[in-house]
């Protein structure tokens, strides 16, 4: 096990003295999110060439405290090497409003040289270095303080091999002519749109709302937007604010009085007392909304034929590259392209040259 240290970022400035000199660092995070809307960042593991720092960020407010923000800006100066880093970047961005300027994701990189997509970090370390990592604390309470040393040690192992894995994967990718692909796909993770939950788009996360139309759809949009804002404001999970089934029932029935609203199955009296007026206001506002939404139509025969040809092209390219088809273009992305969407990854970067242009020819009937 490499040497590791626990660092309390509230009182210890040692990271600020040498991190700017590091070209890259291995990074992982530990967080809890079962009882909150936003995940609570509990630990940031940082691997340099010869040391692992397990940094405690709890109690820092990077969005409102100048010292905390300056520290995070220093911590995001080097390039970050992560494994399956989307959730780590999400919690860091939502906690601090800051992202690193450059990232390299070893899970992304491994998939591009033929490893199984979504390969876990432990399995990657085992494949590359023949080392078996412990899996004894996967359900640990990372918010507890003081944090037991056994958890600090366990957390440190999650970054111990990141830099070495990055170097080995980069070497293999370079030989295969795919290093630029891994860099491009890794850098896509820095798109802040991935981590911003717009309340106006909450309807897309409401299970069961897809087939609602007309007034019921308009009501569901208003109610989902209200719930998202309420969840953000109170920092509680959406389902704790109101379960999907209850919200949908209200949207379909659209009660216009507190008494009728109170008859909704599953709506607790205390919830009615606290937010009943908010719900009624949302329903009243929805009554003035125009809703021309229609669920997506089933593809016609021409579209089905085009989709089949696209899938055949994709399969051929994937076989040639010895990569999973989902890695190049997920099925939902092909379907979206068939329905007219063009702001898709298949039409950018290395995918455009390998396959995207051929798909565009199919879609344009050539």
Indicate the topology.
Blueprint: E1 4-8, H1 14-18, E2 24-32, E3 40-47, E4 52-56, H2 66-75, E5 79-82, H3 86-96, E6 103-105, H4 106-111, H5 121-129, H6 149-160, H7 162-176, H8 179-187, H9 214-234, H10 238-241, H11 244-253, H12 258-262, H13 269-286, H14 301-321, H15 325-328, H16 331-338, H17 349-363
Parallel strand pairs: 1-4, 2-5, 5-6
Antiparallel strand pairs: 2-3, 3-4
Helix pairs in contact: 9-11, 9-13, 14-16, 14-17
Can you summarize this structure?
Helices cover 50% and strands 9% of the residues. It is an alpha/beta fold and 366 residues long.
Order of helices and strands: EHEEEHEHEHHHHHHHHHHHHHH
N/C terminus separation: 59 Å
Strand content: 5-15%
Which shape, going by the Cα principal axes?
A: flat
Count the beta strands.
6
Unreliable sequence segments = none
Query: Order of strands across the widest beta sheet?
Result: 1-4-3-2-5-6
- Most strands sheet: 6 strands, mixed
